Amino acid sequence: MTRSIAWFEDLSKQEVGTAGGKGANLGELTAAGLPVPRGFVVLAEGYLAAMDAGGVRDELRQVFQEVSRDVDDSAALAAAGDRLRALVRSAGVPSELRTEILDAYQQLGVEVAVAVRSSAIGEDTAGTSFAGMHESFANVVGDDAVVERLVDCWASLYGERVIAYRASQGLHDEPSIAVVVQELVHSERAGVLFTADPSTSDRTRIVIEAALGLGEVVVSGQVEPDTYIVEKDGLQLASVRVGHQTHRLDGVPGGTVARIDLTDELADAQVLADEEVLDLARLGVQVEAHYGGPQDVEWAIEGGRTYLVQSRPITTLSSEVDGAAAAPDAGPEPQVLVEGLGASPGIASGVVRVLQGPGDGHLLEAGEVLVAPMTNPDWVPTIRRAAAVVTDGGGMTCHAAIVSRELGVPCIVGARTATADLTDGELVTVDGSTGIVRAGAIESSQPAVTGISDRPAGPEPTGEPLATRIYVNLAMADHAEEVAAHPVDGVGLLRAEFMLTDALSGVHPRELLARGGRADFLERMSASLLRITRAFAPRPVVYRTTDFRTNEFRGLEGGEQFEPHEENPMIGYRGCFRYVREPDLFELELELLARVREETPNLHLMIPFVRTAWELEACLEAVDASPLGHHRGMHRWVMAEVPSVVYRIPEYAAMGIDGVSIGSNDLTQLMLGVDRDSAVCAELFDESDAAVLDAIAQIIRAAKAAGITSSLCGQAPSNKPEFAEHLVRLGIDSISVNPDAIGAARRVVGEVERRILLDAARHDGT
To answer: What is the pTM of this model?
Structure first.
């Protein structure tokens, strides 16, 4: 007889295949005598039996396996997800299973409030976390509500992100899901406990995050929680960082959750007393000892009693790697075929595939070397499959370089004759550090590709406190969770145009709107953006609104109908002025940000390429008139990349701008009159030129005088330690670097700040 329901006390971690990671772990914690609220699990067998009874199981399996073969087709993925979820809902809950579930629910109490939480098979294990991908519901009350939320959890098994994630993890078999029904802790305080530091992989420390009310505000990143660090040796409290909490969530009668705004006093008050922190740490030590490895634990406090409501392995800890790569085997140096600018580090071998445009991207097989005249944002799906990228044109700051660095794909730009000198099927080795393409394959034990997760040679990045904040530049959601695990203070530059072309599968946004795809735009973009904001929460994510350039976006599907032809698009119809001329697209983007910010208020706005005060004033009026304008605590930034900003910072600050982010790539090209994408003039492009440095110094000083924040998000700090040192000595508030430069930037900034303090001490001593 099929077992459909099991109580926590009857489960253990060995039953992850039927109770899912969450359910099995709650059973394991209960069996270990740890404080877990009562509950039961509707097992995967119950879900599968329901789908069988509804006559939809075979179709679910078939549709899922078909779509999981190619999750890069966003339109097909969305259609399949809709179909799969509709099938689950049409099947519903058979009467016998409904009776069994409600009998168990009533054993918990009469009309008791419960949490109904997805527990997918394969979830919360060491290899796959599925974090935040499936539905969970708090404060569910009553028979009908419990059954409805159960079906919602089942349907979430086929969310688009879940399907894509399963495919990326090689989970192509028929998926199934269990659902936890657990007494709700009416938490006065709640949060998360890590038995190892997830940002530095330090296993000697426990990190505890705490907030008022339900723990959902911490897990979803809605507030900035308190952070407590405890040394495991002797359980000593090492540091306390009190956060800022705008609101709390409380369960209210009727099975809903209410948001309660906090007074200024409560918003900045410490959540836990020192002894409470140490009590939690002791529980964490017990959980880790029981499992034999680092754990991510959710906890809640009600009436002075602490409960554990979830535990799972920490999946983001780095393993030890050697800093030095193996030396190549001795032998003659392979023939140099092409040379260009090394734009994204790493070495990879593969056969050449020469493509003239993104429309040919389907011809590239996974693991081949993409060779093209130039790449624009619509090449992103193709670059994902490439072992390496080589382009005829472009500079260090072109899109091919930016995307390749973020995806961890070796890249050479400005190779000039690559499409002529390299031929389809030719086996080559691309060195993205030196800019050289050689004949043949790698003949060494050096890793073929170095990406974001690979450590640079030299000391490990540390989490030492810095006065200068270190942010990271991002363009897509692919590696958000991985990058967020590094010791960074947030995302200083999120380039919207890359996300847009990726999420919309190469369709021009106006073409999508012409097809009636407004809701589709919001759904796809919000899914990508939430993946980033959730990963970094509560750290800030500064979203730079789409900086269309006509030459790039003409290549998108339908783009020729909407994009004018320009001789000099770099200084043409783009940025702030475009929002003034096309307010409907800007309003749509603001609606997107408001939607995402409802769930993750760590998102902030940055407006690019601001030439004049009247343009900025018009854009800010549009922001105020939009749903985004009503959000408290949202910061408004402008990019400082047009030289006129040097003179206009006082005006911009008076308009309510909170910060400026120096785009040194554009600022350099406009100060020196050099097209940043030009391979011919690449040697003239120098962000360290005296004129550029003077403009940057004036911007930083003007920002300080106006009482607003200054940052820099160009390429130079990622490549040149001396440039980063110059910025720190000027007193810049933050620096935003590429993901692969985080460790180097932290080391340089730390060394400079220590020297500044030493110099000041010596001066005071004299």
So the answer is: 0.50
